[in-house]
Amino acid sequence: MDIDKVSKCGKVRYFNSESFICIEGNEGETAFLVLKGYVEVILGTFRDKKRNIARIDEGAFFGEMSMLEGSPRSATVIAGGGGVTVLEIRKEDFLMLMKTEPELAYKLLKTLYNRIEDTLNSSDRRMVAYAADIRRDKTYKEICSINLQQFTVIVRQQEDYVLKLLTYLSHTLTKINREFMERLPG
What single string gives the DSSP state of each residue in 101-138? Predict the structure, then answer.
């Protein structure tokens, strides 16, 4: 990925350590790409069941669920130790970037897929049946098997279909996170 090229499609921003970047429940229309440093993702920030669910490092996305679905932020994201530099990307810019840099959209697809898998694999046995249902889903299986070369062809020929796949993963991850939070003790 060419960072110089990518950075022209968004706004580079710096956040000090422990600064809020996204707040769960707030409206959001942008996604972020971590350029330097890392961020922490927290569910249930303002509830009794607060849970740090992920660390997102350089080269990975966050906030894409709101960008893709136009829904409120599903988690709170704070800057990691030492601060973080991110690229904030609007949906229109992402669509343009997807055509010129399909590997970036593929990276987002795999990021979402891997987050789902990580959550399902780390869940307790009460989530086993739920995980099995997701893994049997036709669209989920299709996403699992797509490689970068196939994805590049799809991006160039069926942009709307790529958005459908990304939105599907985003929506699935939102459902998993909700289910996971509901099953937490206490």
Answer: -HHHHHHHHHHHHHHHHHHHHHS-GGGHHHHHHHHH-H
Burial of residue 87 (number of CB atoms within 10 Å: 0-12, 13-18, 19+): buried
The domain total for the chain is: 1
Residue type, 102: P
Residue numbers of the domain that contains 156: 3-182
Q: Which residue has the higher pLDDT, 167 or 7?
A: 167
DSSP secondary structure of 124-182: -GGGHHHHHHHHH-HHHHHHHH--HHHHHHHHHH-HHHHHHHHHHHHHHHHHHHHHHHH
CATH of the domain at 117: 2.60.120.10
Using the structure block, give the residue that is written with the tokens 């810019």. 93
The one-letter amino acid code at 172 reads T
Residue 94 CB-half CA count within 13 A: 27
For the stretch 85-112, pLDDT in tens is 999 998 888 888 888 888 888 988 888 8
pLDDT band at 159 (very low <50, low <70, confident <90, very high): confident
Q: Which amino acid is at 180?
A: F
How far apart CA 164 and CA 172 sit, in angstroms, is 12
CB atoms within 10 A of CB 77: 26
Q: Which two tokens stand for residue 153?
A: 């062809």
